Fold each of these.
Amino acid sequence: MGTVTSEPKTAGSPPPDDGRGPATRRRTRPTGLYGPLLAFLVTAGAFCAAWVARGTFPFGNTGRALNDQANQYVPFHRALWDLVHGQAAGDVLFTWRGGFGQQFLSDYYTYLGNPFSWSAVLVPREHVDLAVFAITPITMGTAAALMTVYLGKLRSGPWWQRGVLGATYGLCGWALSDASYIPMWLWGLVALPLLGIAVEWCLEGRRWPGVALLVSLAWFGNFYTAMMATMAACVLLAVRLITLDLTGAQRLRALARAATATVTGILLTLPLLLPSFLSSGAAQPTKAAAFDPVRIEIFLAGMLPATHLWGGRPRLYVASLGLILAGAFLFNTGIAKRTRLVWAAATLLVVVSFQFPPTQYVWHGLAVPNGNPYREAFVFSGMVVVLAWLSLANRPRPLHLALAAALLVVATFVLRRTDDFGGWTWPAVLGGGSLSLLALVLLGLGQGPGPGHGHGQGRGLGFRLGLGFGEKRRFLVPVAAALMVAVVFAESTAAAANADARRARERWAKPAATSSQSIANHFEAVRGVDGWPAHRTDSGAPQTSYNDALALRAEGPQYYSSYLPAATYQALEPLGYGWKNDGRTFFGADNPVLDAIFSIGARVRPGTAPDSWTATTFAAPPLVTLRSTPYASPNPADSVWAHQENVLGATVYRVPEVRRGGTPTAQTYTAQCTPGSAAFWYSPELYGSLAHGSARRPLEDRMSGVLPLGAVPASGAVEVTVDTRTADATAGAHPIGCLDRAALDARIRDLTATGATSVDTGGHTIEATLPRGASGTAVLAMTNVPGWQCSAPIRPFHGLVALDIAPGTSKVSCAFTPKGLTPGLAAAALALLTLVSVTTTTYVRRRREKNA
């Protein structure tokens, strides 16, 4: 096996750190790509093998999409496909699909920033979900390959050894259990070794523009995990500055290069970063709880190989090979004592910082983590792999390896009764650990004595094992290599399959289908009644995902984003739309009044045949309507029916007195309405099931929104029974509204006759032509999200965009610009100018020196 060595560095650059001084440079055949390629193949192959073992789509019928993968990532990638192929209602700044018009730039940066996300636009739209699934093994493999390169910069050594350890990083517990279904977070796994390479360039005093570009590449992918990786890079830089033999001036220059390149690289991303930051501030707030660290035994159990802990708990492990080598690091006398102490102390401080609220807030950007609070766990796994490599590259003794393996077994035994202790942990520790130890011993026998293990310490592993031979047994090296690759591959495959299987038992992670005949028919039904911008189309219910409007090319209220503005929540919630996730997810409502308010002129519903969908069209006002005077509903002011009428500008409901009976868990409601009117129900506090006549449907408190009950019979009696599991909750005082359809139709005709004669929408603009003599207030059927600028000042109108019309006005127009985009572009231009200037100056200086 060849040894990979780095190219000779410029004068004064620090050597790789072997703990004993300058590394011996040997010229060998070029094998620089072999290690990264091996790491990529082992990582991606093991992850895909777990899919095969589980019978997961596309290798079986088990659903692949977990939680937000189905609800956000696949729909957003389908929206990206539409955008690239010119079939989107909107552009990169704004989308008209979902939430009645929402910013898109921050969503793009957050959910589509992983560069591999662009692979989704290269396949047919019906296969976008497969491309999204493929992003995971590709990104994990890339992270493993880059870690292999970074390890080589820390210490030279055989390419295949670095490749195997790179794979243990790409297959760490965080990647398998936390981020395997989150494409954008996985970019953080790439960012860490990427920034580690940048740190080494700073120490070498070279490639300042390259460092800035690596920083920007890390931050372009995903700012959240890139922030964590950048903090980890600061730790790596500090460790290297302490362990390398550098002068004070060299240390200061390295710090200056790192600081200036980091600032420049981050500024290059500011056109995305600043609008996202401001969008986050304007988003509907969540009720994230304060950080509560897990018990110490659970925290330590997260370090055991192949362990998947339930819920928001830390997954800190790497494969047993990496753990055994990292455990032997402190004992390895082939590494300088200062190097061992500094690396070990830094790793310990990093992992301890995960358990304290102040440092956890720092890791998470001074915010309370919403969801799993250990999202920075990959940083610890990366540092463990670094320790493992420094240990392996300096030929650890078998006694020390055996001691580390024994400690792993003892720790597993002590923690065996911990909550969630996994069934695959013992096989990984005993089976994977034993095979890893065997492979390392065979490797030592094949390599012979290593650095720092001269005659005074024994002439090689053979003598130290008492086997009676000291010469190298080269044939053992490929055996050890094959065994190390095989054990990492097998153990990681089992760990990934175990993580999928255990996670699927949690209600929130039940796999969902993202491709089926029903979904294809649903998409075609929506396309068949598309009329944008003359009217909106609602994709209807049941929903396949929380972002059906994006996925199916509709324009309804369905939208799920961490950036959904508080302004949208405040506009839609009082009107009776269903919602969840603290108001960052909105659902549709089959209600003709809401359809009239938001210019919905087509709706899709399930057909009678299996997997079929039917579409209906109906009259709807234009997107821009005119109101002459303010309107106040005569119905109870706190009811959803009055809120709808205030926005519509007419009385269309009769809100009857409702009598409640039954028991707390089996409630009955009766009311008297006008025969022939249409009855609707709204009970945001009740969870269970609702029965009306012969129909029964689920009732999911705030998620359900306004529900149609059907036509009121000739008796005028409306009777509803609710079986609820919600303790001490009722439907409220006014759960029933009876719609006068004739009054609503008259209002629709009036709004159409006086509204805009034509409406044109661009990617992030809207322009409406008004009828002659228009006056009053123009109301645009879109929520007043931050970023709209119009031809007249925007005035408050129940959360919608509204403009006062001056006499003689024939057109109104609005354009959307994300807040922070302009200063972000200016800062990025300045950073780009700096980058180009430094690159040009460096090139010119080197040319002059060469010519001289």
Note: The first strand starts at residue 3 and ends at 4.
Amino acid sequence: MGTGERNQEAHVSEGSGATPPRTLAEALRTRDDASLAALLRARPDLLSPVPSDLSQLATRAATRASVVRALEHLDRFTLQTAEALAVAPDPALYEALRSLMTGDDGDRAIEAALPGAVATLREQALLWGGNDRLRLVRTARELLAPSPGHPSPTGLGPTVAEATAGMSPGRWQEILAAAGLPTTHDPVSAGAALTSLFTDRARMSALLDTAPPEALMVLERLVWGPPYGEVTADPTRPVRWLRDRGLLLPTSLRTVVLPREAALHLRAGRAHRTPEPVPPAVTPAAEYSPQVVDRTAAGQAYMALSTIEELLKDWNEGGPAVMRSGGLSVRDLKRTATALDLPEPTAAFWVELAYAAGLLAPDGEPSERYAATPAYDDWLGLAPQDRWARLATAWLNATRTAGLIGGQDAKGRALSTLGPDLDRSAAPEVRRRVLDLLAELPEGAAPAPENVLARLRWERPLRGAAASAPDGGGGDLRSRIALWTLNEAELLGVTGRGALSAHGRALLGAGRAGAGRAAADRAETGRAGAGRAAADRAETGRAGAARPSDAEAAASAVRAAVLLAPLIPEPLDHVLLQADLTAVAPGPLQRPLADTLGVLADVESKGGATVYRFTPASVRRALDAGHAASDLHTFLAAHSRTPVPQPLSYLIDDVARKHGHLRVGAASAYVRCDDDAMLGEILADKRSQPLGLRRLAPTVLAAQTDPATLLEGLRGMGFAPAAESAAGDVLITRTDAYRTPPRTAPAPVPEGPPTPDDTLLGAALRAIRAGDMASTAVHKDAPADRSAGHAKSPGQLPRTTSAETLATVQAAALTGSAVWIGYVNAEGAASQRVIAPVRVEGGFVTAYDHTADEVRTYPLHRITGVAELADSP
């Protein structure tokens, strides 16, 4: 006995009862709580809201929307099994299904994997019944079976009976005679005879041996689908030969179809051209030392932190404006990409990542602009490894997909950075699955992207809504997200040289388990067949259905940060000053040094070493920020490993002498200076005319512009004015002062209802069981006729007198037993409930309602009747 036959024995019947179930609801009633919980985990949409009983659960499981969603979450082989069942007789024997999957020659890998696929379909309530009566849910059959205008995924056409419905008796006689079959005037008998011919291997082969070679060529073009072909009013001889013998049956005046039974004979009984019981292997395309991978990833992680800091420093005084339709304009994205010295798609990724991490947001002002949030200052105070962990966690869980930027939405509108319509609920699952596949490889191994995409397509074939969902560019969105994931993981430092780093494994919670499991898989050669496929399918289902909790994700982020910390270079406390007014930072700088130097000088180039250049404007910026010239000299002398060049000292002193000599304040604006000659020079300069200046006193000029414009105008003329307050004090401006009000990071958009936790599942199962018990309850001591007032059949409200009702609920409260009641609420709606009375007083009964899974209080006068349960819950 083969593996498939042994597994088949374990699934002869569904449930423990001797009577086979007649409906899906009956099949669900035979399941235990663990099986029902597995169904609700796999299809969480069935819990929204919680069904009142198992009949409602079965009805909801058979709705079109729910079935489509369940089919889209099947792997390729399980889906192929469902497609084969859709073209099999209903109900189907397991042997018939196995024949459709393996064909006449058989295939051990398919035979071994088939029981697991059938079990998955049965567990997800897409299939019910024992192996002697396999029934695909009707909605699934309608979606997968061939119908007019809806070809089957298998490429098979309708059966002989379906294709010949309504055929005239005369035409039947012609077909039977040409095929060498006894003629009959009964269409049913005629169809059965032709079907019997097509399904008889020997007789069908003998018939095809007499076919012209051209006719066989016609069949070859139709056999794997689509099975339909067009014919003219006067078809060719080969087509006439096939049509006369029923091998091509008319579906309209100009269309013929190859019947399913004939196609299966030509396919040697196989429903699919290429069944895929085993998932494509993800193998290493390149291997590196784990240390090299970790160092490369750590270097890129540090670059990620620097890029985010540089981005938000560039937006410190208020970033780009928010477009009316939301998001960043193309012009502002180009300017940001230029400032970061990055390609626009890469710059868009960093902007979106900062937004997903809650580090930037719109400020909410009337002229709305993007700026850093207060959370950015908290983030800057963290250690580098902790800052990276926060970015990586935000990226892993974000549904906003930066790769879509530049495409179009369903209405043809451009998708912009930070704009709407960038959420794709599948993104977190795809990212995590891609990284899980990398984690299964040995440490330091990098796969080819094509292998990763092939595996993902096997685990989740493109179907229905997934194929037509707007994704800003067409094609398989999941595959595109996977490619973006590989690129973004490298940018972020989760991977190095295409291989998953140690801190990347820890971020997933995989640790070193991935490499150990991969090694075990290689050593375990016996798993090469369908046993491995079944295990992979189970693991894929778990990966797709179960996401780590917040606590688990936080613990993984901490472990990742601990592993990354030793790989990040220690920040330096010095720079190298040079005579050409530049400073070279040979590595990352400590935060106070980097902040002060960023104000005092402009970044000229980045790379392994950062080059800063000192200019009059940059020195004036430092003076505006409140630094005195003496402070700047002391700062440079303390943090330079080389002597402070004389040109730099002269530059600072020269700018400082001029700085603040002029004072600008608000009148609407004024200029104040003790040197009236300088004010005369300003008035004589033609460039001051737009400022609307006039002398109020020998040392004061009034202006018609605001102070900010006046400051910029005087600086453009070569002066170094300083702003002052109403008290005459110099105003200190800091470039990092502007922040948005407190903002929360954007919440990911979930892909359908979330997977229920154990608490919700337990409560839902109790409510469903209680409701099912109420709808199918069998009462004790039910009288044989209706005259006694009790319900005779399930579903009817019990009827008892007020005294009987009171006595029964009081007894149940004393014994702690459950009873079945009929209840009519204030709106007149009647319902059945299973309750466990706790207290009876004042005309009310307080009880635990098993149907609602909560304690409720019921007026006794609204209870129509009460009956004891044969089996209390």
Note: The longest strand covers residues 830-841.
Amino acid sequence: MKSKNYTKYILWGFAAAVLSMLAVIVCFWKLGVYPFGEYSVLTNDCYIQYIDFFRYLKEVMNGSAHIGYSFSKSLGGSLVALFGYYLSSPFNLLLYFFDINELETFILIITILKVGLCGFTFSLFISHRLENLKPVFVVIVSLAYAFTQYNVGQLSNISWLDGVYMLPIILWGIWRYVSEKKKGMLYVSIGLSIVFNWYTGYMNCLFAVIYFLYEQIRWNYKYQQLMLKKIVKQFFCFCGIELLGVMLSCAFFIPVVFGQSSGRSILDEGIFSFATNGSLLNIYRGFMIGTPNMGMTVSDSTITLFCGVLLLISAGYYFFSKSIKNFDKICTSVLVAVMIFSEFFKPLENIWCGFKFPAAFKFRFAYIVIFVIIFIAAQSLEQFDKIDSKIFCKIAGINIIIFLIFDFICPFDSIVLWIQIGLLLFYGIAVFIGLSDGKYRRICFGLIMVVFYSEILANSYWVTSEVYRKPAGEYAAYAEEQEKLVASIRTYDETSFYRMEQNKNRDKREYDNSFFANESLAYGYSGIQQYSSSYDKKTSDFIASMGYCKGIFPTFYHEPILTSDSLLGVRYVMSSKAYYGLEHVSNMQEHNGKSVYFNPYALSLGFLVNENALEPIVSGDQFDIRTILEDNPFEFQNKVYSAILGEDVRLYEPVGAEYVYDETTEKAVYTINSVGNENMIYGYTRSTIDGIPMDINGEYSCYYRSAWANMGIYQIGIASEENQVIFNVKGLGEEVRRKSLQAQREIAEGIRDDENSEPWIDSVFYMLNMDTFERVISKLQEQSYQPQVFEDGYVKGTYNAKTDGWLMLTIPNDENWKVIVNGIEVQVKDGVNTFMTVPVKIGENQIELIYHVKGISLGIVVSSLSIIIFVALSVVERRKRKII
């Protein structure tokens, strides 16, 4: 390639990058995002998850947090998988230059830079792949890729954007491999894509195989080498290079794999069950400008592939172009079918998502499908001078008719529909004039560029117009106060180990559901809850079984549960209200509407347990309403404490409640009569309805959640008084009320166990026997263990045992812990399903725990082996070429 051509490609790339970044800036300006307005860039998962992870990463850079293991991740866990999924982007290195209070600015800047890089890398790819594509169309298709539906919809999932800008580099590498037999770019780009974000890296690698076959088969046909044996050989050679690229990443990737698979199944159950995402015909509706789909919920089955009206016409024209060979059209049709059906059929979608169900943000690989459409359109535009303007205009007209038919079946927004029709007419006419009269061509190109740019800006605004609504600076103000609150507790209590939690989230909604479950990571304290895709199933199962929530992803802490908190060492609760059993720490100032409460029953890190604790304890499905009497968290806790003590312990006893459903007020009312003592009453509810307003003893409590932000045990009152819990179904919708009435009648008629009549709600109420609880806690405290050193990945201390036995530490057991007692490495077991339980001897036991990140050594060996093999192959091939 000549130097001047290389310079031209770079200039086009920079033009695409600058215009892409400008598009983001204009979009944020129009939306009023700071610094262009009053709203924050933080939204969706960026607000719920990423901001806390970035705050944690900043602490790692400052040297005050550990990247391998953290006790701030739920009850403690590996951070390698979380880092690989959320934080391994090279752009995150820029965080070093930002203050911890400037995280919103940092996110804004890297979002703009990543989108710009998407335009740049696509421009480089398309310029080399389609060398005759005119500069104006290079910029247009690059803008379409950088700032089209997927990227606009995923601005809150900025870690996925690394896969978007790496895809064109990988495909450029494939083209060089096919056309020039050069494999270096392919090899390196595969490895880097996995390192930058392994999740999208996996998707890119999967598509690379499909794209290679597409390009290689077309290449072989062009040069009359289309032989099955030859293609099979070429395919396996390519797979070998791709495998070497994956191996190149293994120094990083293997530890991530071990961390990601901790306690979790490789495949989600039922991922291959046949199902579809909406109607196949409705996919075409997704080409309408401004279609507001980002796959936020599992039920959202709208597939949107908008990438510009011009490219929609151009992609359609590809299949009617006389200058494109029929064989190429057949290959392209197969490629399109594979990618469209991958989104349409859910089993295929699940494979693309890593053999997992996408819990939210469906169609996570849509950027690849959109790439295919843009690439097809670009191939049409490369032959611009040969375009039959009449056919092009006919395709535009056919699209108008199709959208009008869809509007008749299910109406679009009328303004958007006519804008779409106007764009179809404009592009048809502009291309017709540009091809008909050469003296107007530059004017037409200029108008096409301006209109296309305006189009993608309008689309971005419509797609995101309701997304950015949080006030700018609100998070920074909250974070500053939260830092003060956590610091005050640390100053008050300098003990090496204790946990703390909170009942109030930072979103300031009318219900406090603590949905922001990563604040322990953000502020560096040991907590319970956690929300990330890199969770430990064993830990999450235990948290749910103890009554904090019902689901294992995410795990939440909605309010204190005295018995659960005490077992796990939750000594302080940052709370918006008082709870029975906790003592208000009056000399600590309130911050963010939260005061500090002390739990006098909180246990230390470890305590001596009976060997019964080593046996598995069964817990049921926390969402199954029919089994609520048998497998509720109260019964599970009784089993846990009984196993720990080696005796039958009943901390909780059920109390009766009178249930009445008032059809007039549409309220489910539970009344618990006084039993004449000062013990505490707790409740636990399962329901098929999510978000029911709940009143306790005449006061509003919360929206009781049974789905995503699911809740568990709630505190009601004292047993010496009459207590009442009310669930208000009114206003939740006619269908909900109808079903609830029907279910209530079925329960009243005694047919609750009928397989066709699942109850809509059921609750159990238990009394905590405080005398028994205090006796149990006192006994456990007698032989407790408080370490002298408690740091991320390292624990050390002395334990004086009165007898040989088992010391259970409330640290989730993980095979990567090395446990040394009195200088000898020992084997530990799971206590009460979850915790590290260490054998100890009578007398003094010097205990040391060291965490080793699994897979680093193996990963380095594999990466080194990859480099050696690749270099050796390159040397051999170079010598062969010299001989020839």
Note: Residues 752-756 have pLDDT under 50 and may be disordered.
